Amino acid sequence: MKPQRSAIPATAAVTALLLPLTACGGDASAGGDGSTVTVTVGYQSRTINTVTAGTLLRSLGYFEKQLNSLGDGVTYKVNWQDYATGAPITAQMTAGKIDIGSMGDFPLLINAARGKQLNRPTRLVSVTGYNLRGGLNTIVTAPGSSLSSLKDLKGKKVSTSVGSAADGTLVRALQRAGLDPGKDIEKLNQQPAVGASALAAGSADALSQFVAWPGLLAHQGKAEALYDGAQLNLPTFHGVTAREDFAKKRPAVLEAFLKAQTQATEYLDDHPVAAAEKVAKATGLPAEAVYLYNGAQGIATFDPAIKPQLVSALKQDVAILKAAKLTGDVDVDAFVDDRYVKKALGPTAYAERLSSTPPPPAGEVWPEGARETLRFTSPTALLRHVAEHRDTVRAAYVPDATTGTLWFADRAVWVADGDELLPFVAPATARAYVAGHGGARVVTYAEALERAS
C-alpha cells in the first residue's frame, strides 16, 4: 500500500525501527526549534473491521490533523505499518517498535499475554468493529461441496489461522456439533490467503476465517457458507491496543488517536458507501465485499466504546487459547483500560455509547453508480426490486432470518414459507427452519426472484 499524506519515507521508517526503545516507537529529537516525534501505528489493511483505526483512518488523515492541533511545540509524524495479521503487530509492540496496533479479539489476548510475559505490558484502549452474535467469522466450503453441516467435517481437512477469532469459532462450533476439534478434523494452520488457495485447490475441505475472507470468497463465487458464526451468539470484535509505557508518556497522543478514530467512525456511519469505496481502493478488495461488513446495515457495528458484553466475551475466549496452549491465564480486567477513550469521547457520550445497541439489520440494494443504497422492509420487497432492476443492481444484501447476519442475496439460501421468502447464510439453518415450519421449502435464488415478482 503506498504511503499517504503523513507517511514518512521508507528510509526514515527503517531508521525509526533501529532507534533505541523509547516511549514512542520512533521518538527522535530534532533539536533547535523543538522536537520531532514519530508515532508508529500497526494495522491490517485487509482486516476491514479495523478500518476506523487503520485503512480508513489513514486515508482520511484525521490522526495527523489531531496531532497537528495539539499545539505542544512538537512536530509529529505517523509511520503506518501494514500487516496481514495481528501476530507481527504484537511482536513489534513488545519490541518497542509499534506504539498503537489494531487486531481481533483472540490476537488481543495473545497481545496481552506476550506483553506481560516480556515485561512490556499493553492495554486494550478502544474497539473498532464488533458483532454481538459472532457474525464476523464464517466457515465456508468450495462451491458445490457435498458438505452441508458441521458434522460432515468429521475426518476432513479444515484450514484456519490458529490463535485467531476464526479458529475460536471453529473450535466452539465443532464442540457444539458434538465433534472433538483436536481429533475429529485435520486442522491446517494457514494464513487466510493460503487457506483460500487451499480451498480452491481441494487440499482443504473447508475454511474458517475472519472478515473479509468469507464474504470476499462468496462474492467471487469461490466459496459457499457452511456455518454462520452468529449461531454461537457470542460477541466477536476487533480493537485497539497500545503499549502501556507509550500511553503513560504520551497520553495526549493516544487521546488524539482515539479522537481521530471516533471521527473516522462517524465518517463511516455518515458515508457508508464512500467509506467502502475508500477502503476498497486502498486494499484492492471489492467494494461490494467491504460494504457487506462495513455498510450501513453491515455485519460489523463500529463504536470505540469498550462495551461490557465484549469484555465478557474476551474472558470466555481465554479458555480456548489456553486449551490450544497459546497463552496461560490472562487478566482481562487489567488489560482493558478505557480511561483514554472515555476522555476522548467525554463521559456523557461514552456512557451513551456503552448502553447503545445496533438496530436489527434491513435488506439493502446498491444500485450501479449510486452514492447511497436503498433499504427494504422485507426480503420479498428487496427481491421484487432486484427482479425489476436486474441490469442496474451492483449488489443486494439480506439479513439471515435466524441470526440477522447480512449476506449477499444471490449467495443466500432461500426458503419459501407461504407468501414469505426468507434468506439464510448457511444451508443448515435453512433446513432447521424448514423442519420447524410445515409447508416451507428451500428454493433457488432464481425461483425466489420469480416468486417475488
Characterize the structure shown:
The protein is α+β, with helices and mostly antiparallel strands and 453 residues long. It has 3 domains: 10-132 and 237-355, D-Maltodextrin-Binding Protein, domain 2 (3-Layer(aba) Sandwich), CATH 3.40.190.10; 137-232, Periplasmic binding protein-like II (D-Maltodextrin-Binding Protein, domain 2); 363-452, no CATH class. Helices cover 40% and strands 22% of the residues. It contains 19 helices and 19 strands. It has helices at 10-18, 55-60, 62-68, 87-94, 105-117, 165-176, 192-201, 213-219, 244-249, 251-270, 272-283, 287-294, 308-323, 332-335, 339-345, 347-355, 379-388, 427-436, 445-452; strands at 26-28, 35-43, 74-82, 100-104, 122-131, 137-141, 157-160, 186-189, 206-210, 224-228, 236-243, 301-302, 363-367, 374-376, 393-399, 406-408, 413-417, 420-424, 441-443. Strands 1, 2, 3, 4, 5, 11 and 12 form a 7-stranded mixed beta sheet that branches. Strands 8-7-9-6-10 form a 5-stranded mixed beta sheet, sandwiched between helices. A hairpin with a 6-residue loop joins strand 1 and strand 2. Helix 4 runs parallel beside helix 5 and helix 5 (105-117) packs across helix 13 (308-323). The longest helix is centred in the middle third of the chain and has 20 residues, at 251-270. It is globular and about 70 Å long. The two termini are 44 Å apart. The model is unreliable at 1-23 and 28-33 (pLDDT under 50).
Structural class: alpha+beta
The level-1 CATH class of the largest domain: Alpha Beta
Largest sheet: 7 strands, mixed
> What is the general shape?
globular
State the CATH topology of the largest domain: D-Maltodextrin-Binding Protein, domain 2
Task: List how many beta strands DSSP finds.
Answer: 19
